[in-house]
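Section 3.1: Structural characterization of target chains.
Under the original work plan, the team committed to producing a structural model for every single-chain target entering the pipeline before any wet-lab resources were allocated. The record below documents one such target. The sequence was received from the expression subgroup and is listed exactly as submitted; it comprises 245 residues.
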Amino acid sequence: MQHQIVSREQWLAAREQLLTEEKDLTRLRDKVNARRRAMPWVNVEKSYVFDGPNGRETLADLFAGRSQLVVRHFMFGPGWEAGCVGCSFLADHLDGALVHLEHHDVTVVVVSRAPFAEIEAFRQRMGWRFKWVSSHGSDFNYDYHVSFTPEEIASGQAQYNYRLTDRIGEEMPGTSVFYKDADGTIVHTYSAYARGNEAMLGTYSILDITPKGRNETGPNHNLTDWVRLHDRYDDVDTGSCCAAD
């Protein structure tokens, strides 16, 4: 992209015009956030059990004494050598926020369908501190439309991101939010998939203010063109969201 070189006064006029649009976007985001909080809720009727560092735990246990639970659906299926690169990119942003969220009545837990031993080995390799549990043998991933049966994949269509799509694999990414009241009733309040999770990627927010922006100019025109597991940036590989290293 070619840019004009202008006087400071001309630059300031352009910046002030852009600021007006930025403020409009901020106000729209506030409005959408309010609508999200005002959405109706649905009771979680099914009992889910997970395997993690504390052994077998229910969904209620995962709240860890808080009333709000954010579950990150991480693409890591049974037998995979490593977790999804894109999910790992997002996971890199979680640890720094944990202390603040936990002191603001929010627990964050990562959930994958791989057995816990496989999850824990990869978590330790990546140096993450967040709690990561396995839903292996549970309907949890399927009920929240982030894992898909061989039959669904063979049919070429499944429900993902609130529509039928043929762009699915064995595992897909997402985030789900739950609330537990004083009586122990658990409700599902929100789920987001695909680019609906970009707000959690602080790296993108920084890239978006740089001259080159996200600069995703590879064949996929998204993060799969450049993001690597953070311990693999010196490796020569093509990279992909779900590739094992």
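The CA atoms of residues 92 and 127 lie 9 Å apart.
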